[in-house]
Amino acid sequence: xxxxxxxxxxxxxxxxxxxxxxxxxxxxxxxxxxxxxxxxxxxxxxxxxxxxxxxxxxxxxxxxxxxxxxxxxxxxxxxxxxxxxxxxxxxxxxxxxxxxxxxxxxxxxxxxxxxxxxxxxxx
Length: 123
Known about the structure:
This protein is of the alpha+beta class. It has a single domain (6-119), classed as TATA-Binding Protein (2-Layer Sandwich), CATH 3.30.310. The chain has helices spanning 15-25, 73-84, 101-104, and strands spanning 6-11, 33-35, 38-43, 46-55, 58-63, 88-90, 106-111, 114-119. It has an 8-stranded antiparallel sheet. A hairpin with a 2-residue loop joins strand 3 and strand 4 (46-55). The longest helix is centred in the middle third of the chain and has 12 residues, at 73-84.
């Protein structure tokens, strides 16, 4: 089932490389607009939010649409790793507010060693 939005976390990725990847994967990107610690742009009309160092060294990338080329976070994370060569983490499925804390700490890590489910405490 297609997720309503996409959110992945990238380690050691720079904003320009991410924008170039989005442009190749989705379409033309507007210039980034900074608001506080957050940067926003649009990739082929899809609202994109970039939060540098959202969790420690991890940058958050949020695509606020179900009209992306990816059905879910994992598909996007796989593509981001293939294009950028940096470790990527994402939730294993859509996260719900009412989920237990333990469920919220389950993540998928994608890197040169492959794909693995991990526990990631982000607080």
